Amino acid sequence: MGITSKMLAERGRKQAAKLGIDPARVPPGQYVTQKFPVLTYGRVPKVDLADWSLSIWGAVGAPYTLSWDELMSMEQATIQTDIHCVTRWSKLDTTWTGVRPRDVFARAEVRPDGSHVMAHSDGGYTTNIPLAALYDDDVLLAHSFDGEPLEPDHGWPLRLLVPKRYFWKSAKFLRQLEVMTEDRQGFWELNGYHNDADPFTEQRHWF
Asked: Which of 8, 109, 195, 202 could form a disulfide with 62 if both were Cys (CB 3.0 to 4.6 A apart)?
C-alpha cells in the first residue's frame, strides 16, 4: 500500500500536535521536519560578492542594479515563518533576515501596468509571482537563515522568500527581478507545476 496525501496530512497534524503547534499550520498532504532538505535545479554557483549584483528592470520607470554592499545598506528585516515544499515537507518557525522587496520596487518606480514579477537566478532558473504577493510583510530578499548567512545549497548569497507559496517560488541564487505587464510562466511552471502554488489548497501541479 502506497503512502497517500491523506496519510501524510494525518502524520503532519500528529507531528504538530506532539510539538504543541496548532495543526492548522500544516497544509494538507505535508509532514513536519526539523531538517532543512536541499532541493536545487542545476549547480550551486560560485559567487564573488565583489562582482555580485541584483538588477530590477522591466515595467519600471527607473531600472537599476544593486551591489552587495548597497543591498546590505538598505533597511533589514527579520521574520519568523513556516515554509512548505511541494515535495511534502514543512518546516515551522524558521527565521530569516533580508530586505523587503517592496523597498526595492519603490526605488525602481514600478509602472501602473506592472502586474507580475519573474525572478531570475544564476544558472537560468526562473519563477513567476504576482507583484502584489511580493508586498506582503513576510516576503524577503533573504540573505540569512537562523542568524547566519545562507548556506550555498540554500541559495547563498540571496534568495527570494515567499512563505505563502510552495518553496519553488522562493528562488535561490537570485540575480534579477523582472517586472512584467502580464503573467509569464517560469521553469517549473512550464514543466507542469501549478502557476499559483498555494500549499493550503494543494496547488502542486496543473494536472
From this structure: 109
Q: Which three cell numbers stand for residue 125?
A: 532558473
Cis (ω within 30 of 0) for the bond into 157?
yes
pLDDT of 105 reads 98
* pLDDT tens, residue by residue, 77-126: 999 999 999 999 999 999 999 999 999 999 999 999 999 999 999 989 99
User: Across-strand partners of 117?
Assistant: 129, 179
What does the DSSP 8-state code read for residue 192? T
What percent of the chain lies above the pLDDT cut of 70? 96
Q: What is the pLDDT of residue 17?
A: 78
Q: How far is the C-alpha of 50 from the C-alpha of 118, rounded, in Å?
A: 25
3-state secondary structure 38-81: CCCCCCCCCCCCCCCEEEEEECECCCEEEEHHHHHHCCCEEEEE
Strands 89-99 and 31-32, bridge-based pairing: parallel
192/148 Cα distance (integer angstroms): 34
Phi–psi pair at 167, nearest 5 degrees: -70, -10
Distance CA 170, CA 165 (A): 8
